[in-house]
Design a protein that fits this description.
The protein has one helix at about 50-55, and strands at about 10, 15-20, 20-25. With about 60 residues, the chain is α+β, with helices and mostly antiparallel strands. It has one domain. The radius of gyration is 13 Å and the shape is globular. InterPro entries: Glyas_Bleomycin-R_OHBP_Dase.
Length: about 60
Amino acid sequence: MFGVEPYFDEPFYAGFNIEGYELGLDPAMSSTPPGPGGTVAYWRVADIELGVGRFTETGAEV
């Protein structure tokens, strides 16, 4: 999505440095029920419309 390879890539965690910001991905546990309550992501963008567009173009649901 960002064209950046992870600097840390293990089955339990993948870490990305995206222009000085940390993006950490932790795999979902099969024992965790589906639904909200586990992860919150914050992104700072110069243009919110362009930012949301970039995410939705690559498959994100808003």
